What does this fold into?
Amino acid sequence: MSKAKDDPAAYGVVTVELEVAINAKPERVWQALVGQTSAWWSKDFHTNPAAKGFVIEPRLGGYAYEDWGHDAGQIWYTVIGVDAPRMLTMQGLITPEFGGPTHTMLKLTLEPNGGSTILRLTDTRFGRVGDGGSTATSDGWRALFEDGLKAHVERAQ
It folds into this structure.
């Protein structure tokens, strides 16, 4: 049995922060964030082509997961903090298949800004993060929350 050694430089901690202004009140953004996730979560981010949607259960111990139907799927996160409609904190694991092993802590906050909302995202990952991990992570979150959530909420107004 042979073992390959990972490059120690590929391991560490990376934090990605993102702000997205959404032209809707926090209650509406929260409703879309946790109640209409499959409507805005891009299929490009599913880990399996069989995925029927993406679900966020906004309660302590709830999951954020891909639903593949017939009791199959992929858990992305476990909810460890919730204060509806202003904050959701989740922790997850990224498997080697998707660039890990990495532990991730994701915090989403919704702050009122007049009649709009500022969504603040902080994703702290530790483990195998590699070079360019923060750029790819930032680009992915931006695509999901700007092109997905923001567009969905503002289109529905």
Summary: The mean pLDDT is 92.
